Amino acid sequence: MSPLVMGSATGPGVSPERLSAAADALSAAVDAGAGELPAEESARAGQVVAKVAQRTALVGGHTVVALAGATGSGKSSLFNVLVGEEVARVGVRRPTTATPTAGVWGAEPAGDLLDWLGVGARHHVGEAGGGPQVGSLDGLVLLDLPDLDSRETAHRVEAERVLELVDLFVWVTDPQKYADARLHDDHVSALSAHEAVTMVVLNQADRLSPEDLARCRTDLARLMERDGLPGATVLTTSARTGAGTDELRQRLANAVASRAVSRARLAADVRTVAAALERHVGAGEPAVDPGARTELVDALARAAGVPTVVDAVARDYRMEAATRTGWPFTRWVHRLRARPLRRLRLDGRDVRVTESDLRSVLGRSSLPPPSPAARSAVELATRRLADRAGAELPVPWAEALDQAATPPGPRLGDALDQAVVGTSLHARAPGWWRVVGGLQLLLATAVVAGILWLGAYAVAGWLQLDAVVPDAPTVGVLPVPFLLLAGGLVLGPLLAALAAWLARLGARRRGRVMEGRLRAAIETVADREIVGPVQRVLDRHTATREALRSAAEI
């Protein structure tokens, strides 16, 4: 006798642990992708997870089999034959089955299971219903469902509700309706992933000649293959003559003996909804593009006024150098000029607080607001970063990336300003400033000494004390007072000019150092406000995709 399982190597072999892990993975996928997965399909997945928990929590080794089909296919007659008694009402022209009827084999109580199934009409099958099959039917719960094409909407709804809960489908049809589109399109093909728990019965075989029966059976097998069940085996039966019912009874006994059909059905449900949800995630896992991130940091740096701050740092450096190394008789002029960093409120010496307190004390800097071009550059950079990250993702995920890359309100501008305010723009004064400053003081002293010395000789000459005052020492033909004065007046400005040239070089180097500090602070803001939220969406997509793949592989 051929086995129940047709075309599946994994269905009945699903262990309880593997089924539970797949259901957990499906639940995790729905949670991770809650905002991007379709609500209807996510709700369906939640129902499947709940069904797995409820079905596996029911004690006992029962196997629930449903006889489903169209009006007039002989489901109820076949049900009575299998049960061995006239339990279900049989109608010829109109559907008579309004609610499911259950036939229960074995002594093990099935009340909780039938309550969960919502089946009220129950019949316990005695030993007379055993049949000639190899193996026992104990544990079988056979359901006679209302017609799937019933004119009564309530009948169809009830049949579809119970079909969602049973372990094994037995599609019962007849020579007149075996090609009915409603049966194949609405039900059989919709459950094509459940091949391991599907059987097909062509009933009323006694109405056909052997040749016609063979043709109908072949055609029905072709239709089942079109529905996605290429391995389906079509059984032929006759409830009136009993032909083929022994083989059907044997297959049901095989299903009961395996004690794994319920897990196979649940596993197929998990695979089906996981496969449906997998269409709403990307095939791979994109990442934040490094080039887009660099472009974003550049745009944010311009919007935050980093070039303005770097220029102010350089000018502040040159002004400070001039006050330390310039010609002492003119350097006081530089002290009268306002410092660029102080104008921008970026000089920490203006406030007697630590740098960590600048954010709360200063609030905002005096940097000019970003220009429209700078704002546009930021918007373009954030959009490009999100677009590149979501280029291969479905639309809901791409939209989530766009939203994540757009901080609400003025938060980004405030964060950039505070990043600039909180960055230290000071460094230790170069050692050459002290050397040059010392030389300048020495030269200034020489000038003062030369002036006083020469002045003393002028006063002595005016008082006609030349005979008393000794002659000034000379170097060659030039007197030392003159050399002190002339040397100081010439070498001081020359040294100041050299110091100014060195200061320009140092200012550029200081500007690069401070630009690095500012960019590091801007990068922190970019990662916290834009890149981080985008990466979290990508991480959720990864978690969703991997969980769905794990669930679909059961």
Specify the overall morphology: rod-shaped
Number of domains: 2
Total number of helical segments? 19
What is the element string, with H for helices and E for strands?
A: HHEHEHEEHEHEHEHHHHHHHHHHHEEH
Percentage of helical residues? Answer: 55-70%
State the total count of DSSP E strands.
Answer: 9
Provide the gyration radius in Å. Answer: 46 Å
Oligomer: single chain
Q: pLDDT under 50 segments (min length 5)?
A: 1-12, 350-363
Strand content: 5-15%
Major sheet: size, sense and barrel closure?
7 strands, mixed
- Average the pLDDT over all residues and give the rounded result: 84
SS class: alpha/beta
Q: How do the strands line up in the largest sheet?
A: 3-2-4-1-5-6-7
First-residue to last-residue Cα separation: 28 Å
Could you please describe the fold and organization of this structure?
The chain has 19 helices and nine strands. By secondary structure, the chain is α/β, with parallel strands linked by helices. It folds into two domains: 60-261, 3-Layer(aba) Sandwich (Rossmann fold), CATH 3.40.50.300; 290-552, no CATH class. It has a seven-stranded mixed beta sheet, with helices on both faces. The chain has a two-stranded antiparallel ribbon with strand order 8-9. α2 (39-57) runs antiparallel to α9, α11 packs antiparallel against α19 and α15 (372-389) runs antiparallel to α16. The two termini are 28 Å apart.
Topology of helices and strands:
Elements: H1 16-32, H2 39-57, E1 63-69, H3 75-83, E2 101-105, H4 111-117, E3 121-125, E4 140-144, H5 153-163, E5 168-173, H6 181-188, E6 198-202, H7 210-226, E7 234-236, H8 245-258, H9 261-278, H10 290-303, H11 306-325, H12 332-335, H13 340-343, H14 358-362, H15 372-389, H16 395-404, H17 411-421, H18 431-462, E8 474-475, E9 478-479, H19 480-552
Parallel strand pairs: 1-4, 1-5, 2-3, 5-6, 6-7
Antiparallel strand pairs: 2-4, 8-9
